[in-house]
């Protein structure tokens, strides 16, 4: 019996030491996972939001001239406004004539309004959208590619907040920045013309 007790006690001591290390009782160090992609690139639009974007895009300024409105990488909008010749090839059913296109884009400040206001409007309307690229072809090829963080910094406003706060949208954006002078500054900074 004494021999069995010693054997059991010895076995217990041996087994209790198995798998332990001097630091086994110390808490495991916290591990953090970092991504090389910025947090803004990790947001994605749901299938419902992509579908809503497809319905929304034709209603943008210059909608009849839009030949491409796509979401790529689940959070970037690509909008292309065609010149008249391309528009007729892409949408032969359009009843538009060349004079209509010329009158539309050359009246007032239509090109600048479209290149500035519509990307901002899209970023406001779709909070998961992180980048907007617009190409507008009329005489020249105008391009702008803006991301949410840059535009929010430029405008000093959180665009997602303006979606639900119409007064903030009107007072801090529309009335302040959607003027001919402010559009000209924005175009100078964010638009390339070739």
TrEMBL record:
* Superkingdom of the organism of origin: Bacteria
Q: Where is this region: Disordered?
A: 20-48
Report biased composition (Low complexity) as residue ranges: 20-40
Which keywords appear in this protein's UniProt record, sorted alphabetically?
Signal
Signal sequence, renumbered to the chain: 1-19
- Protein name as annotated: Sporulation protein
Originating organism: Brevibacillus antibioticus
